[in-house]
Amino acid sequence: MSIETILAALDAEIKRLQQARSLLAVLASTTNLHASTATKPATKKRKRKMSAEARKRIGDAQRKRWAKQKVGK
Question: Could you tell me if residue 48 is inside a domain?
């Protein structure tokens, strides 16, 4: 294969890729137009509140697991 043949093949591939890119860019711009009008505004997530009693139960259970693990070693 000569260098000229390779260069011609590369040029053809580059042209094909540029056409594919331009088609995708057009598709993306039309998709973004529709998507931006259809989306809802982002809502702020609320932080979950845990009662002091629930925190104590969870803490006690975790301390119990740690104590059990220490005894096993």
Answer: no
